[in-house]
Amino acid sequence: MAEKVLMKGNEALAEAAIRAGCRFFFGYPITPQNELLEYMARHLPEVGGTFLQSESEIGAINMVFGAACAGVRVMTSSSGPGISLKQEGISYIAGSEVPAVIVNIMRTGPGLGGIAPTQSDYFQATKGGGHGDYRLMVLAPASVQEMVDLTALAFEKADEYRNPVLILGDGVLGQMMEPVVLPAPSPEKTVEKPWATTGKGDNEKAKLITSLYIQPEEAERFCDHLRAKYSAMEERETRFECYRTDDAEIIAVAYGTAARLCMAAVDMVREKGIRAGLIRPITLFPFPSAPLRKAAEGGAWFLTVELSTGQMVEDVRLAVGGRQPVAFYGRSGGMVPDPRVIAARLEELAEKKGNAETAQPNEGGAA
Amino acid sequence: MGTKVFSRPDCLRDVASHYCPGCHHGIIHRLVAEAIDELELAPRTIGVAPVGCSVFIYDYIDTDFIQAPHGRAPAVATGVKRALPDRIVFTYQGDGDLAAIGTSEIIHTAARGENVTVIFVNNAIYGMTGGQSAPTTLLGQSTTTAPQGRDAGADGAPIQVCEMLNTLQRPAFISRVSVHTPAQVVRAKKAIRRAFQCQQEGKGFSFVEVLSACPTNWGMTPLDANKWLEQYMLPYYPIKDFRIPEGVQ
Asked: Which InterPro entries match (chain B) (predicted)?
């Protein structure tokens, strides 16, 4: 039965994973995601699951790899510096086409950085991070409720596409408490995994999970196969939310915590008669380029807001394709922008747009 | 009528080997296959293949296989074994894989007493990448990255993996064998079989180091390589049962 409770983001995510049938967790402590690990240590054994604290993030991700090959629902979580260490394993998991769920509750970087929240692992999450031509499905929750809902989705999609799915949250989402509706526990998932290496049994052909393709022709065929899978994801799995965009001339683009701040900023400037809206990517890969392109074709200008020095803004610019200006506002190092400052940026942009249209009708100026 | 006394193990595939002449991987593969057959483990065995020359072990041994990242096979094996505790899980790793990049994984898997079997092939050099130094390269031994010979001052001393793992509390079975003579092959077979049996009986982590030759990268004939192994490797890497649990025959 579904139930409404007050929970911390990291713990809600962990509980959602257990309810989604995750029975194996391998991880290594790092702030600000430790509650997730600790929750799994306490609660996985209660449902007959296995929690193991590995010797390193590298150990953890490879244990995830092994368990995923064995066909079980498995998860790991970390934060930036730990995710960097896991990248080798993530590349192998993607290259071996096995499903796994990986959580990154982002902290500041580069290097050891700090434990305050940022969104500065966007490139790492969406542009590979590890070696080779692979993609992760990347889900970006903006509330504790979404951390729960997207976790269930992550397990489902990982199995469906035989691909790792990354949940990209940040320290704010991980640490804050919100009321959340937990789904009823789903009985142990019985997704058929005929490819899993569980032992060949009697008279059965042995199964092999590998990412090694020595012959270039074979290796290219494999990469083409992966590309087709990622294209299918782009076609079917792109998720986003539009907030007050129907008549919007100025559109904020932000995900996760930054999107919540932008939502408040949009409401503030709307009160002043500025037609502002927000497009919030929920999947960062596949990236919701289509709604951005459409809004650009309709003449909207854009303000990308991130808790970083500017990473997703590159994808926004690609989607907009030079049709209209794309401005950027970001704070880094764990500084969280004030919605009033974002509102001021939206106002400035609206003013520039107005001036540009007065001066040169139908042509966008530089923002 | 003759009686058949020797044949290919069922779980060793009838395919041509890609290994160099005189390489011992072929022998060790066979010993692993024989042990799996004799204990009737093939239907429920999952092997974890390494990086390096022996990555293609999955082409030879007819059980399920996973190909792991360089050095990470013990962690992958841990994941499989935790998910499927009633299956037999083994890794097959070279010295570059296990004793360099994978030291963390092997030590901690052994320290946990994970109920898996590790076959560690030590030929004191990197094979697939062309004869560079390994952590097990002997002092004075020349390699492409130690052309003047390994020097303790510059390169450190070779790692004796069995001795190192033997300091841990949890491993159940640790043995070092060699395959450079027929008598040693027989002894090696016994150790490998015991290691799998140890896992089968749930006794915990089992580890067999197999000293082996790499004539190509040592720059020797296969026969000279065997002599070199005996003359130089055995004194530093003594053949020995370090630890045997009670009840394992």
From this structure: 2-oxoacid:Fd_oxidoreductase, THDP-binding, TPP_enzyme_TPP-bd
The boundaries of the domain holding residue B191 are 24-243
The partner residue sitting opposite B84, judged by closest CB among A96, A198, A201, is A198
Which residues of A are less than 8 Å from B72 in CB distance? 58-59, 62, 65, 88-89
Measured between CA atoms, the residue of chain B closest to residue A70 is B80
Q: What is the pLDDT of residues A284-328, one digit of tens each?
A: 999 999 999 999 999 999 999 999 999 999 999 999 999 999 999
Show residues of chain B in contact with A54, CB under 8 Å: 75, 108
Rounded Cα–Cα distance for residues A129 and B57 (Å) = 29
Option in B55, B64, B108 nearest A198 (CB) = B64
CA A188 to chain centre: 25
Phi, psi of B192 (to 5 degrees): -65, -40
A30: pLDDT strictly greater than 90: yes
Residue B186 domain-assigned (yes or no)? yes
Q: What predicted TM-score, i.e. pTM, was given to this entire model?
A: 0.96
A185, A114 Cβ separation under 8 angstroms: no
| Sign of CA pseudo-dihedral B139, B102, B121, A213 | negative
The CATH number that applies at residue B87 is 3.40.50.970
pLDDT digits (tens, 9 = 90+) for A213-247: 999 999 999 999 999 999 999 999 999 999 999 99
CB contact under 8 A, A63 and B105: no
Whether B18 is in a domain gets the answer no
**Which residues in chain B touch residue A88, judged by CB atoms under 8 angstroms apart?**
69, 72
* Chain-chain contact of A62 with B58 (C-beta, under 8 angstroms): no
Closest CA to A278 of A300, A262, A290: A262
* Interchain contact B200–A (C-beta under 8 A): no
- Name the residue facing B80 among A66, A89, A92 (closest C-beta): A66
* Measured distance CA(A68)–CA(A158) in Å, rounded: 10
Instruction: Among B43, B68, B82, select the one facing A202 at the smallest CB separation.
Output: B43
CB atoms within 10 A of CB A191: 13
Provide, as residue numbers in chain B, all residues whose Cβ is less than 8 Å from the Cβ of A209.
65-67
For residue B36, being part of any structural domain is answered with: yes
Assigned domain for B103 exists:
yes
Into how many domains does chain B fold? 1
DSSP state letters, A64-132: HHHHHHTT--EEEEE-HHHHHHHHHHHHHHHHTT--EEEEEEEEE-STT-EEEE--TTHHHHHS-SSSS
B97 at interface of A, judged by CB pairs closer than 8 A: no
